């Protein structure tokens, strides 16, 4: 299947990303991700969903996925409720402080002010296969009230190479609520973003807010009526992180 054909299918489906898998050996697959507008190098939630679908067909165990961002092993397990949980090991994470200009541009297009940010969590650009601007909302109400300039934010993100803007509010040191505007994919908001969750986990570790092995809970999609739950953990002595989730088949 050509790149143009995969992009056309993704555009027709209209989901934030569509995954395409090609078997390269026993429990080994090449996986590519396309938004309605372009190919994405790594997509965590589509990796989880694809792995759950594989688990339904080939059973529990480890699968080795090769993405444009590098290898992503996934552990597939049956859960006590009879469903399937997939746990991916992300590409290596990295972070850097966002510049004042980057933050200013983002806030202007979001319609936020500097007072809307939580100073306990400084703005960073975090990466786990692709870049995400990470901004902390000072209150849950600020996170819930999202009405941004789609075209303006999309232009800035394209210029700066951000795949999403990861907006979050800290309920506790290990429980977070998140929203991810996704103009580069032609989508107002992503209901679950595994790649951003992985990058965010690396961000917390780099800030010294996360011990290896501590499990984070991230609630996403709640404000758009499509609730998702992601669990993440840093790996001792490894720049990668683990992200776990499940998926639901759409009939």
Overview of the structural elements:
Helices cover 26% and strands 37% of the residues. It has 251 residues and is an alpha+beta fold. It folds into 2 domains: 85 residues, Diaminopimelate Epimerase, Chain A, domain 1, CATH 3.10.310.10; 152 residues, Diaminopimelate Epimerase, Chain A, domain 1 (Roll), CATH 3.10.310.10. Strand 5 and strand 6 form a beta hairpin. Helix 2 crosses helix 6 and helix 3 runs antiparallel to helix 5. The mean pLDDT is 96.
User: In terms of quaternary structure, what is this?
Assistant: single chain
Structural class: alpha+beta
For this structure, the CATH topology of the largest domain is Diaminopimelate Epimerase, Chain A, domain 1
Could you tell me how far the N terminus lies from the C terminus, measured between alpha carbons in angstroms? 24 Å
Spatial shape = globular
Query: What is the overall number of helices?
Result: 6
Task: Write down the CATH class of the largest domain.
Answer: Alpha Beta
Rounded mean pLDDT is: 96
Portion in strands = 35-45%
Order of helices and strands: HEEEHEEEEHEEHHEEEHEEE
Provide the CATH architecture of the largest domain. Roll
Poorly predicted runs of 5 or more residues: none
CATH homologous superfamily grouping of the largest domain: Diaminopimelate Epimerase, Chain A, domain 1
**Rg over CA atoms:** 17 Å
The tally of structural domains comes to 2
Largest sheet: 15 strands, mixed
């Amino acid at each position: 299947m050509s790149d143009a054909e995969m992009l056309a299918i993704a555009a027709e489906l209209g989901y934030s990303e569509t995954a395409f898998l090609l078997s390269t050996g026993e429990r080994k697959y090449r996986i590519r991700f396309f938004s309605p507008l372009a190919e994405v190098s790594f997509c965590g939630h589509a990796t989880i969903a694809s792995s759950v679908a594989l688990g339904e067909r080939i059973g529990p165990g480890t699968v080795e996925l090769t993405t444009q961002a590098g290898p992503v092993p996934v552990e597939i397990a049956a859960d006590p409720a009879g469903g399937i949980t997939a746990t991916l090991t992300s590409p290596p994470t990295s972070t850097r402080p966002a510049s004042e200009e980057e933050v200013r541009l983002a806030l202007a297009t979001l319609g936020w002010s500097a007072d809307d940010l939580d100073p306990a969590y400084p703005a960073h650009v975090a990466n786990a296969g692709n870049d995400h601007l990470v901004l902390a909302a000072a209150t849950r109400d600020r996170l819930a009230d999202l009405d941004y300039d789609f075209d303006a934010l999309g232009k800035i993100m394209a210029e700066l190479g951000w795949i999403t803007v990861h907006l979050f509010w800290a309920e506790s040191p290990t429980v977070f609520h998140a929203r991810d505007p996704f103009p580069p994919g032609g989508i107002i908001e992503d209901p679950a973003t595994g790649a951003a969750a992985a990058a965010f986990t690396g961000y917390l570790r780099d800030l010294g807010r996360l011990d290896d092995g501590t499990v984070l809970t991230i609630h996403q999609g709640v404000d758009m009526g499509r609730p998702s739950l992601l669990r993440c953990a840093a790996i001792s002595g490894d720049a990668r992180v683990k992200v776990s989730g499940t998926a639901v088949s759409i009939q």
